[in-house]
Amino acid sequence: MGTSAEPSSKPSTDNTCHLCGITFRNKDEKEEHIKLEHSEHKQPSGVS
């Protein structure tokens, strides 16, 4: 019980934001977070 890279012991890796490392309860929350916080398609609010 030393390897943290085991996929069996960490099923929530798919719900982790690869940009800031936050783990969410489900994939929908993670994707919503990425849309809001890390969207490359639109500029952040306040930037012209």
UniProtKB/TrEMBL annotation:
Domain called C2H2-type: residue spans: 15-43
InterPro entries: Znf_C2H2_type
Taxonomy, superkingdom: Archaea
PROSITE patterns per UniProt: ZINC_FINGER_C2H2_1, ZINC_FINGER_C2H2_2
Protein name (record): C2H2-type domain-containing protein
Species this protein is from: Candidatus Nitrosocosmicus oleophilus
